[in-house]
Task: structure prediction
Amino acid sequence: MKYQELVDVYSALEATTKRLEKTDIIADYLKKLDVDTIGKVGLLLRGSVFPAWSSQEIGIGAKLVERAVAEAIGTSKANVEDAVRDEGDIGLACVKLYAKKSQTTFFSQPLTIDFVFNSLQKLSKISGSRSTNRKISILLELLSQASASEAKYLTRTLTEELRIGVGDGVVRDGIAQAFNIDKSVVERAQMLTNDFSVVAQTALLEGENGLKKLNLTAGTPVKPMLAQLSPPLAEIIPEMGVAICETKYDGIRLQVHRAQGEIKIFTRRLENITHALPEIVELFDECLPHEDYIVEGELIATRNGEPLPFQNILHRVRRKYNVEEAMANVPLKLFLFDVLYYKVPMIDEALSKRREILDEIVDDSDDAMNLSTMLTVTEDNIDEAEKLFESSIAGHHEGIMIKDASQPYIPGIRGKKMLKYKAEPETLDMIVIGGTYGIGKRGDFVGSYLVALRDENDEFKSVAYAATGLDDATLEYLTGKMKELEIATKGRKIIVEPKIVLEIAFSEIVESPEYETGYSLRFPVVKNIRKDKGPKDIDTVERLISMYDAQ
Ligand code: ATP
Result:
């Protein structure tokens, strides 16, 4: 199957903003594909060659792609950089450059989906010495055979920004429509497998019944269930009926799997961090049964038994060397709060039942292994939930979680069945898409950061410039990162690849035509660099609007 056909689909998708039209385009195309190709296209439509659960990335920087484009078409790197600066996007720059391409490829074969897919996967595996040269040679094979439109979407796929306005929802609807399957069945299959390749192939081969049989598997991470901000306790607890209130620990969330004897630890971004936490692997081996399971909990760093702020645990987990030394210096404590799988999938069980099972299977006699402090609350003992909140804050934790005891675990959703009640005002996690250099003495630093949120198609929409809350060392660090990620610079303005996540506090959300979301923030302050989060984990435009409405 020719890559050009997929590229024509990309173009058609980019040309319309209407969701129903996008769904038609995807559905019509998927119906034409064989099982092998549909598996690849399922991922390529979302601009990737790896399922969402995988932490593998294509991992090619914009600069390397620009260099390869220059070599492929026989022009200078400066020419490519100029075109990218003018167009603000590598894909559009390619369209312009390929029109003037001086290099012709003899005996060139049309690119196939197979070849493109396999080459992109190969790129992610290259590391070590001479890796740049090996990457360039694969890129050249692709880019020198590409047409202008193929180069447009190839380079965008390589830099992980496809810009066709297609999120998970549209791909899901496209699969449902192509094979006449209920959307909710496709959605559930996607949530449980996190793999559009498997979902599309199963839909094609086995239809709705096949998709219904897909389920969680121990060993493959799932997107965690997330929390919304809680209304006052007196309002929400009667609404839930029976709630489980727990201390909200301020660490990192771990999803721990045991599958066929092997223990694996994932972050909430589904990154495998098993290697960084040998003592936690051992702890699980000792404190839980030797069965297949998936459990979730929060991991915190401690000193003299007291919790340390969140950044400490992050440093510990990011460490690649001297893990042993860190183990001795930063003792860890784990607080388990959910079980998603124990011998069989558990997510459809009510939380109260899952918690009972968790209590049964965990031996918490080791100081490091704990179950989260919890309390069953109804409208008769709301005061006890308030006391739990106060004691949690006094114990240097973040607040409490309020969870509906009757509810199943729904992966990947931020719904009303799990809520958080914190002492600190709410913040939003945003992606940096650009910035402005300072003036005078500050001319070497990017002093102001253009931050954006994610819309339903996973496109980034600007919200504000954040310039306060950064000390000199952080400014220097961020400026260095911005330079690494630079796509183009014009005067004092810089555009960057969307990779840096900042946690932004603010006093108020206001309407503003100046920004792409239509909203902006008053007094935005950078609270943290969220190194534990990536572009897919930032907050959404939808969330911003619901916070605006709630103001
Ligand atoms: P925050 O910055 O507030 O942690 P977040 O976006 O990281 O927000 P949320 O879904 O908003 O995640 O808040 C829930 C998070 O709180 C969970 O992902 C988990 O890491 C953490 N947490 C701490 N204690 C608990 C608990 N007892 N039960 C569930 N989650 C908990």
